[in-house]
Design brief:
The structure is a single chain. With about 160 residues, the protein is mainly beta. The chain has one domain (about 10-155): Cyclophilin-like (Cyclophilin). About 10% of the residues lie in helices and about 30% in strands. It has 2 helices and 9 strands, in the order ββαββββββαβ. The protein has helices at about 30-40, 130-135; strands at about 10-15, 20-25, 50, 50-55, 60, 90-95, 105-110, 120-130, 150-155. It has a 9-stranded antiparallel sheet with strand order 3-9-1-2-8-6-7-5-4. A hairpin with a 2-residue loop joins strand 1 (about 10-15) and strand 2 (about 20-25). The radius of gyration is 14 Å and the shape is globular. The protein starts with 8 loop residues before the first strand and ends with a strand.
Length: about 160
């Protein structure tokens, strides 16, 4: 593990639209947070994009190919906590293609999305930068609309 379970973690996602700060849920989803922190600290997310951004749903990023099919070359299991549900805007969760297919892709919700409960691991929440989340350009991966850039993700350990 690269994280210290006695500490807390936040992520600062710097985009071409500004910064978002997210609190990471390392107690509820330690494997997922560990993976995200590991990839961020390695610079994996630097220069990637929000390749899939759907109105009244979410902004998805973390794919180095920008197509929605890329990842880190490995997968890991889901982590679900009964106290974490898709009940609000600003939740950070893993994107996947089914059970046990988590890799590097993540999304941040724009609205409550209860149909995702038990399907995607929630591992953080937006605490600053809601205006930046609102400013992310809507786009489908197959469109010609330019994607907003994730310039880097910085992890803050406390």
């Amino acid at each position: 593990m690269v994280i210290d379970t006695d500490k807390t973690y936040e992520a600062i996602i710097t985009t071409n639209k500004g910064e978002m700060r997210l609190r990471l849920f390392d107690d509820e989803a330690p494997i997922t947070v560990n993976n995200f922190v590991f990839l961020a600290n390695q610079g994996f997310y630097d220069g990637t994009s929000f390749h899939r951004v759907l109105e009244d749903f979410m902004a998805q990023g973390g794919d180095p190919s920008g197509t929605g099919s890329g990842g880190p070359g490995y997968e890991f299991e889901d982590e679900f906590d009964d106290n974490l549900t898709f009940d609000r805007r600003g939740l950070l969760a893993m994107a996947n293609a089914g059970p046990g297919t988590n890799g590097s892709q993540f999304f941040i919700t724009f609205v409550e999305t209860p149909w995702l409960n038990g399907l995607h691991t929630i591992f953080g929440e937006l605490i600053e930068g809601d205006d930046v989340l609102s400013a992310i350009t809507l786009r489908d991966p197959g469109s010609d609309t330019p994607a907003d850039t994730i310039e880097r993700i910085e992890i803050v350990e406390q």
